[in-house]
Amino acid sequence: MASRKKVLLKVIILGDSGVGKTSLMNQYVNKKFSNQYKATIGADFLTKEVMVDDRLVTMQIWDTAGQERFQSLGVAFYRGADCCVLMYDVNNAKSFETLDSWRDEFLIQASPRDSENFPFVVLGNKIDLEESKRMVSQKRAMTWCQSKGNTPYFETSAKEAINVEQAFQTIAKNALQQETEDILYSDFPDPIKIDSDANKYEACGC
Amino acid sequence: MPQLLEVTEYDVIILGTGFIESILAGALARIGKSVLHLDANNFYGGNWSSLNFKELLEWTRSIQGVDGAYSTIEYEFYPIHEQVEDIPAMLLKESKRYNLDLAPKMVPCRGELIELLISSGVGRYLEFKAMDKTYIYSADTFDKVPCSKEDVFTNQSISLIEKRKLMRFLTFALDYTNSPDTYKDYEEKSFTTLLIEKFKIDGKLLLAVLYTIALIRTDANDVNTIQGLEKTQSYLKSLGRYGNAAFLVGLYGCGNEIAQGFCRVCAVYGGIYMLDHSVKHLLIDENSNKFTGLVDVNDQQISSTFLVSSIDYLPPRFLKEDEHWETTSRAIVIIDKFIHEESGDASLTVYPPETVKNKYPVTVLQFSAGTQTCPEDRYTVSDTKPNPLFALFYRHKKRVVSSSEIPENIIIASDPDSSLDFEEATIQARQYFEKMCPGEEFLPAGPDPDDEDEFIV
């Protein structure tokens, strides 16, 4: 591998409002769940260090911050994503049916170099609710995923922490593979990040 | 069926997602104000936006004949280029790889905006490239301009004597307030006079100091010594923070990316976003001359205490006659090779007044694929030279409103100005915020989202 420097992976979670995007990332990173639904406030991105194939990587998981509610996610949100998580609520058929348009929207906005092979992961959330409420069968979801180039599929519960860890292992693994390929294809030197660490240089002027 | 808003009462409605509106959106939501942020366009950034190639062509059509911030819009493809037969088709095919700033600007490495980006956390969303080369044009040649100490020593286009003069001036200017004796006799005179008489700087070197270091954008005779020294000093202070560059440019364009960063802060703190959403009319109470709300495209009546608005959304009666408007002539040109031999990711080229029959300096910002604003082997500039593939010319007006007419609870966000940076606009956003919310903190850093106790507000 060309570089051994610290790897930062950007993961974005897309899906209709209320499917549990914020709860899921909060469960994964902070091991915490709140039953009280609040349309996302205060969620920016969460970071977590994970081991992938003996390599320590930092995963940055971006919330839509509610900007998806009126289809107003700007192109900046999608930039540089290494993996896109498509999420729906298994008890809400409409949230499953919109996955197609979320996937298309991602491909249009992010315009990844190789859109055929860009890593998506599909999550069917809220499997903790009673079976009678379920509107989308596992079979239906898996058929859809197969038709989209065998997209990995997990059924999760952000509330009960079911499959959350496993789902994010796959997300991290696929994101790292994507990032590694991107580095291979990129001729450009690293861009400049401004943050407080970058302040250490004093002005020398002339 | 249109998707309606559940809540129709807000502290602030904001119209337009330009640079100033977006900073205000972030700052207001950050201190707990309820914000509804609308834009009639289906993209962020308004008149500060960066567009891909297809969007740019659509945009030129949309502003054609409209009495707004733009006039004399013309574009042309150059089919004479040997290697490519169908230039329009080729550019449209690679459209998504262009991010073309409508009002190209840079971020000084020290200044209002960069400190705000760092302190507010918005800087975490952004990536930059250094604008690390500057050229000046005279008599058919381009000279590389030395800025830092290191540059001055390695530059081969100026003599040793001139190097000494330049060094003496730069050393003084960096810390000029501590040597008042040097300039006190020149305070009432022009900056040019100080340079010529006190520092014996003339000829090409004088032009370089005036137009590429002090970055004077008008007739240099109108700039007095103090103004010139302030400009020179802020340039010098910007050097050395991020390598040997005084300015940064945004990856994927500047205005639009920064605006989206502040909008994200607004959204994170509960602000509601609706792009592609126009307004039918504003509701202004005739007796009190106060803004009370508006009617949107879905005929929903929405009310708020304050309105922040880009000029685009205001009724024409609020505007002053256009003779008061500052106008900038702009061009976006796509070329097939660098203007200069070693230009890197981004470079600045200045044509001083009278060098190409110009009254004011012409500034060219050149971006290459490294800034993610265009594909490889394409360079976007704001003037021509090598083989152009496409050129768009337009006049960009900074409109002025007549403040006596405007209800006091409407805050008006300006159009982009002719400057090369966002400093004035950033200051304006801060002042508006202070006027609306006296005593409140302007964009403090958010709580660490990884700190679980503060995660859910």
- By secondary-structure content and strand pairing, the structural class of chain A works out as alpha/beta
Average residue-wise pLDDT of chain B: 90
Query: Quick one: CATH superfamily of the largest domain in chain B?
Result: Guanine Nucleotide Dissociation Inhibitor, domain 1
Principal-axis shape of chain B equals globular
Percent of residues in helices of chain A comes to: 25-40%
Number of helices of chain B: 12
Q: Bin the strand percentage of chain A.
A: 15-25%
Second-tier CATH architecture of chain A: 3-Layer(aba) Sandwich
Organism (chain B): Gigaspora rosea
GO molecular function, one term (chain B): GTPase activator activity
Protein name (chain B): GDP dissociation inhibitor
Keywords (chain B): Cytoplasm, GTPase activation
Structure description:
The complex is a heterodimer of chains A (206) and B (457). Chain A has helices at 21-30, 75-78, 93-97, 99-110, 138-147, 164-185, and strands spanning 7-14, 45-52, 55-62, 83-89, 120-125, 153-155. With 206 residues, chain A is α/β, with parallel strands linked by helices. Chain A has one domain (8-187): Rossmann fold (3-Layer(aba) Sandwich), CATH 3.40.50.300. Chain A has a six-stranded mixed β-sheet, with helices on both faces. In chain A, strand 2 (45-52) and strand 3 (55-62) form a beta hairpin. Chain A starts with 6 loop residues before the first strand and ends in a 21-residue tail after the last helix. Chain B is an alpha/beta fold. Chain B has two domains: 9-52 and 254-323 and 399-436, 3-Layer(bba) Sandwich (FAD/NAD(P)-binding domain), CATH 3.50.50.60; 107-250 and 326-398, Guanine Nucleotide Dissociation Inhibitor, domain 1 (Orthogonal Bundle), CATH 1.10.405.10. In chain B, 27% of the residues lie in helices and 24% in strands. In chain B, strands 1, 2, 11, 12, 13, 14 and 20 form a seven-stranded mixed β-sheet that branches. Chain B has a four-stranded antiparallel β-sheet with strand order 4-19-15-18, with no helix packed on it. Chain B has a four-stranded mixed β-sheet with strand order 9-8-16-17, with helices on one face. In chain B, strand 1 (9-15), helix 1 and strand 2 form a beta-alpha-beta unit. The longest helix of chain B has 15 residues, at 160-174. The radius of gyration of chain B is 23 Å and the shape is globular. Chain B starts with 8 loop residues before the first strand and ends in a 21-residue tail after the last helix. The interface between A and B is large, with 43 and 64 residues.
